[in-house]
Design brief:
The chain has about 230 residues and is mainly alpha-helical. It has 10 helices and 2 strands; from the N terminus they run H-H-H-H-H-H-H-H-H-H-E-E.
Length: about 230
């Protein structure tokens, strides 16, 4: 494994553990307070929260617009053949990132089996029913949060100058999952960081082949347009 990837994975894993462990004791209180916010706030979050679905990210028109923007920036110095290669490698990067994230999330959900907040009165915030095969017992990690973590994480790797904006977008959707009562805060933290890790790991894989990315002197994958030709 690339040393930079191993280091990045370790940091993301450590951040996940710290955030999840730190948030778990406060999950019930934060969840109840979030759901008790003014109706207008809850209604707004109900409108935006479904942006975190995998199908929207793959087929939505917003995705196509953003992909076109990134493709232009990455391929602006390439030949026609280079732009053609970029045109198919770009959606491949997103499909692999989002697909891998979806597979990992569903596996962890199944193994953990945490009851969702809507079952709080019946089971509390810490009830685990592994292999329940029931959506009501699939709270950890948040699938929507993992999806936007992967989606915006991929964009932050492709357009690092806009990274704060993309990470803010992921956090906004993640918070909405708590406000609408679908997840606890620790579920969201785990989902966001899982999606981000998948985006980073896939970028490393692509950089090895010099697809879209190239390693900088530190061994970190950067968009090829930001690095001089070897």
């Amino acid at each position: 494994m690339n040393r930079s990837l191993a280091t990045s994975s370790l940091w993301i894993f450590a951040a996940t553990v710290v955030l999840v462990v730190g948030l778990i004791p406060f999950d019930p209180a934060i969840s109840q307070r979030a759901q008790g916010l003014p109706g207008a706030v809850v209604a707004f979050n109900e409108r935006i929260t479904d942006f975190g679905t995998f199908s929207w990210m793959i087929y939505g028109s917003g995705v196509l617009v953003m992909l076109a923007y990134v493709a232009h920036r990455i391929g602006r110095n390439e030949t026609l053949a280079g732009r053609t290669r970029t045109a198919w490698r770009l959606p491949l990067y997103f499909l692999l990132t989002i697909g891998a994230t979806s597979a990992l999330v569903h596996l962890v959900k199944l193994v953990v089996g945490r009851a969702r907040p809507e079952l709080f009165a019946e089971h509390g915030a810490y009830s685990l029913t592994p292999f329940a095969y029931d959506d009501l017992y699939s709270s950890f990690p948040s699938g929507h949060s993992a999806a936007v973590g992967a989606f915006f994480g991929a964009f932050s790797m492709l357009a690092p100058q806009l990274r704060p904006l993309f990470l803010l977008g992921a956090l906004t959707i993640g918070v909405s999952r708590v406000i609408v009562g679908a997840h606890y805060p620790s579920d969201v933290a785990a989902g966001l960081l899982l999606g981000l890790w998948t985006a980073v790991a896939t970028a490393f894989l692509f950089a090895r082949k010099e697809w879209l990315f190239r390693f900088d002197p530190r061994g970190w994958p950067l968009p090829k347009s930001l690095l001089p030709d070897p």
